[in-house]
Amino acid sequence: MSGRHEVVILRWPAEGSLVDRFADLLTAYHRQTQAEKGEAVADVDGLPDHYRAEVLDPQSAFAADVVLVALSGETPVGCLVLTVPVDGLAEIKRLWTDPAFRNRGVAADLVSTALAQSAERGDVAVRLSVWRWRTGAIALYERLGFIVVESWDERDQLVCMEARRSRCSVSSSPT
Predict the structure, then answer these.
(1) Residue 169 burial by CB count (10 A; 0-12/13-18/19+): exposed, middle or buried?
(2) Which pTM was predicted?
(3) pLDDT digits 0-9 by tens, 96-111
(4) What is the DSSP letter of 157?
(5) Which residues form the N-acetyltransferase domain (predicted)?
(6) How far apart are CA 83 and CA 127, in angstroms?
């Protein structure tokens, strides 16, 4: 271990307070995203319906997906959802690190763990979309083997990226 941080990545299922803390992470993710899009909301009730449903019942919203939670001690500090593959393509969604734990490798560990899980189950590729203004996230994805691809989403300012298994970095330690 490099000593960068004392964080462990766990795969759900989760119970009790961990579900609530994961919901808190999702809430922070969605509120920040809405604010960055110029559509700030005060609380969960202000989120669009599909995002509110994720926050209120994450176990149902992500029942078929791989949910990874980064823990510092017993405190969830980051999360990521890896969707069930469709035609061999899985998607990373909801990557979030608590701002107090940023720049410690948590996001890289979550993405690397997701890529490893994807490779284990035989996915052809992992894709994701990220807002153009999230340059730090784009740089991280590029370091981990993702490349920009033609958009599958019509929303303006969204960058679509993909990592094929042969390009993916599945190491959780930096080189």
Answers:
(1) middle
(2) 0.86
(3) 999 999 999 999 999 9
(4) T
(5) 23-166
(6) 10
